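User: Show me a protein chain along with its predicted structure.
Assistant: Here is one chain, sequence first, then structure tokens.
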Amino acid sequence: MDYIPVNTPLLDGNEKKYLCECIDTGWISSEGPFVKQLEDGMANYVGRKYGVAVCNGTAALEIAVASLSLEKGDEVIMPTFTIISCAAALVRLGLKPVLVDACHDTWNMDVEQIESKITSKTKAIMVVHIYGLPVDMDAVLDIADRHGLLVIEDAAEAHGLSYRDKMCGSFGDISIMSFYPNKHVTTGEGGMILTDNKKFADRCKTLRNLCFKPERRFVHDELGYNYRLSNIQAAVGVAQLEKIEEHIKKKYWIGKLYTDLLKNGDQYDIPVAKTDYAQNIYWVFSLVIHEDVDMDAAEAMKRLAEYKVGCRPFFYPMHLQPVFRNMGLFIGETYPVAERIADKGFYIPSGLALQENEIQYVSECIARIFGEN
């Protein structure tokens, strides 16, 4: 068997056709028409009024947070178990991330911990949908409503994921998505802000484009960002969005096949198939090794690499990140669920181009490293 990467994107739609159109017309910059098509298409898909395309998901987070006009020292409650971009977007603006632990089953933020973290300085809650299941949004929105807090929704991994029949990317005051190659819609690199608030949308458009003054280009009253998405990238995204339902169907198929093949393993947990409010979309297929098993994720991935199977570790919790601890953040804080799954969790090949024989091979290799056959 050849090497099986953790992700291979599927680019079998109109990507080449639209890219050739960009080249033939000369519209390759952010001024080209595919950018607006992608913005409108994704906003319509999730049920938002406005979409603002940017160069990556991290940029989307930074601009989304900046558009809310929070003040230095304001607190934002967020999960410790997530990618560093979420906390970095706050810290760079002088905001204070306040962390909560993960749930042991869904690996999303434990919403029952949120209310105890609210202080007079709390201004927002940032939710991050993790690995194929959404955060319990009813609970979050209820807390936010009762305490007058903004809700920032990171739906980077949640293209096409529904919460009680409402699309992720449509919750709260402002949402973001990533179009990295492992997402259900990719532009290679790219991201988007989604909102129903025109003020926030207009602010994001200004911030992504260096804050040029409308009446005089190259004159600036404030510092913005050059976070624009090119027409070439957007062309790929438009083609991808045309096939998103097929992509989601493929993800369900991958998840079900892995589940059938791995469900009898007694040394690890596999993803929860569904909750009371959502069906797992299996953005990635993950394993968390049991605590009493004398193997961590790093060792499991090393052994699978010997079989030419690509893997990725789980996120490393924010409260353990050296960069934040060196800033004096999160000192003495501990979040046991996040710490455990970061040590014991990893995900296996889950990309849209994955084939059945590859899934079967990966599952056989997992059985071998855990001594199950």
